[in-house]
Description:
Keywords: Signal. By secondary structure, the protein is mainly beta.
Amino acid sequence: MNIYIAHMKNRLSYLLVLPLLYCVACQQTAKENSPQWVSLFNGKDLNDWIVKIHHHDAGDNFGNTFRVEDSIIKVRYDQYGDFNDQFGHLYYKQPFSHYHLKFEYRFVGKWYPSAPEYTLLNSGVMFHSQDPRAMPKEQDWPISVEMQLLAGLGDGHARPTGNMCSPGTNVVYKGKLDPQHCIESSSKTYEGEQWVRGELIVLGDSLITHIINGDTVLQYSKPQIGGGVVNNYDPAVKIDGKLLSEGYIALQSEGQPVDFRNIRILDLRPVNK
């Protein structure tokens, strides 16, 4: 009788533990199959990136504008003569559609004096961009949406960062198509050479969210081709009204030295079941 009872106790214990083991295994499998954060920048070189600078062909990193030092992507102009509207962008090698992007940036050094005045303490991260290799040599800006990055000018006036600008695009803001080239965010003003954390949550051609230092500062939807600002583009590419559901991510150079680091992405594409 005692042997039987002991056997039943052991069997009961096994039956109780089995579901727990199954749950642990399921959680481990789910963790392995769930999206993981991926670094877009390896901290060593720009082999996974494509440069396109106005007046130059794709792949020509004129003046060593984009360079890697101390595990940082640095944007510099020390090898330029006249700036000559040589606006540039550094594109990651592949397009994305649904994702959460995290990065850090800081403005450093002196603004290049022959660049346009509006570029002072001004940079950006472009997304849903056209392929840089499809841009004509004389196209100045990519058709894209920009998370504009600004710093305070030290004059006591508010200058929020994490704004939206729209070269060759439009967005729906507060329920209607907004014709403004830039929409201001609700962020604080960040002065000086400090690192600021930026985030973008992009859900295809649906909702876009801008986050600065952990605070949601702007939301809008339905990014689409349209509007002005972009010049010398291929007309076959600029199909006004076409919703943008995916595109390239790019870091901007437009006259202000700026640093980028810790660039990571989380794939948010729906999982087909």
